[in-house]
Design a protein that fits this description.
six-stranded antiparallel sheet; Alpha-Beta Plaits
């Protein structure tokens, strides 16, 4: 036989008690009527006394049955409600366990957002959610994903931590559009929003926002806040692990001082772009950069200033490049820029712009800062990727020998017009 669910069991028990109360009351009444209808064999006085006593007993019994029965039913109903709540809590806990397990397998924020979105739809039906995470420099939070947000236009793509009370206090905060309410500077729209800081390993990793368009939004958010907090806690560990993996991946590819790609990444990128050039015929240029008299700068002003100059030089170079260009630290004070789909003349013009911007750093540090540039390209300077760097380095050497703070272009070996694919 199929077992009954907890709700069905309580319903069956409640109906059984009601039937027993009614049956007992009917049995008492039948007994009284039968007794009173019995042949009168006793004296009138005795019959009156016994009748009064029996009638009183019957009334008391009926009162006990009528008063006790509803109390039992109410007790059973309360137990059933407690069982329903316990059953719902068990389902929520099981879902949170499954969410945590799925998050452990997330490869990045896209996977984590998919798990979080499914969890919000299941456990917080009717509520909207949004996830913000810190960027690499931790100076702002960026919108990672949103689900069923009641006012999509009010979600900022990024927000500073200094504008959020939840992040400044490290505690949940409710932004409500009401007179006298304390609202964050980044809050937009009229929706009531619960903001939960996500903390892991003693550090805030991001923020989970929950909103609802319900009329009694504040009360609704207060009701679901414990569950939303549990979701935020589980998500914070996943965000922390993803951020740590990305940090390690970045450290494996980038130079820690300048933030530019390291030499290993440069070699891989140059090989990929060279293969593309061989297949499609598009040009490929490189710019070799070397800071002038950098050792003297370190000796005169210390390595702290030298490191600052390297960082600012890297930032200056990055600000003048396209998204497809690759800037690397080749070694020491030597830097390399890879320019895919760029002719030799265009690369030389870009190098001149970078030279002027680097020289402008002299005013910032009150000392002369310049750099020398060597430019080479495929196929104009060479058709071999293995020779490309050495040719660019040779042009850089000529710039150093010619007085520094200048751009030297490698001699062209292919004066013919490039194929149409280069256009």
């Amino acid at each position: 036989m199929k077992p009954h669910s907890p709700d069905q069991g309580y319903d069956l028990l409640e109906r059984s008690i009601r039937r027993r109360v009614i049956a007992a009351s009917a049995a008492v009444l039948v007994t009284v009527v039968a007794h009173l209808a019995h042949p009168l064999v006793r004296t009138p006085d005795m019959r009156v006394v016994e009748g009064v006593l029996e009638l009183g007993g019957v009334i008391v019994t009926l009162l006990l049955l009528l008063l006790g029965g509803p109390q039992i039913v109410r007790t059973l109903r309360e137990r059933r409600e407690d069982a329903d709540r316990a059953h719902a809590e068990r389902k929520q806990i099981n879902h949170l366990f499954r969410m945590t397990e799925m998050l452990q397998s997330a490869d990045g924020y896209a996977d984590a957002n998919a798990v979080l979105g499914a969890t919000i739809e299941s456990l917080l039906a009717g509520f909207g959610g949004a996830l913000y995470v810190f960027n690499n420099s931790r100076d702002r939070l960026e919108l990672s994903g949103s689900w069923h947000w009641p006012e999509p236009d009010t979600l900022r793509p990024m927000l500073p931590p200094s504008q959020c009370w939840a992040l400044k206090r490290g505690k949940p905060h409710v932004n409500v559009d009401a007179p006298g309410a304390l609202r964050c500077d980044h809050h937009l729209g009229t929706a009531t929003v619960l903001e939960l800081p996500m903390t892991a390993h003693g550090e805030i990793q991001g923020m989970l926002k929950i909103a609802t368009p319900h009329p009694d939004a504040a009360a609704e958010l207060g009701r679901v806040q414990p569950l939303a907090t549990a979701i935020a806690d589980a998500m914070s560990l996943a965000v922390s692990n993803i951020a740590l993996r990305e940090k390690l991946r970045t450290q494996a590819l980038r130079d820690p001082l300048t933030g530019l790609y390291n030499r290993r990444y440069m070699e891989d990128a140059l090989s990929r772009y060279a293969s593309l050039t061989e297949r499609s015929g598009v040009p490929l240029s490189v710019i070799m950069i070397d800071l002038d008299h950098f050792k003297k700068l370190n000796d005169a002003f210390g390595h702290a200033l030298g490191d600052a100059v390297l960082r600012e030089t890297a930032a200056t170079i990055l600000s003048g490049l396209r998204a497809s260009d690759v800037a690397c630290r080749y070694g020491g004070e030597e830097l390399l820029v890879i320019l895919p789909e760029c002719r030799l003349s265009e690369a030389a013009a870009k190098a001149e712009i970078l030279r002027e911007r680097i020289e402008a750093l002299s005013a910032t540090h009150d000392t002369r800062i310049t750099a020398s540039f060597g430019v080479a390209a495929i196929p104009e300077s060479t058709r071999s990727v293995t020779e490309l760097l050495s040719i660019a380095d040779g042009a850089l050497y000529q710039a150093k020998e010619g007085g520094r703070n200048r751009v030297v272009t490698a001699p062209s070996r292919e004066p013919s017009v490039l194929p149409l694919a280069a256009e």
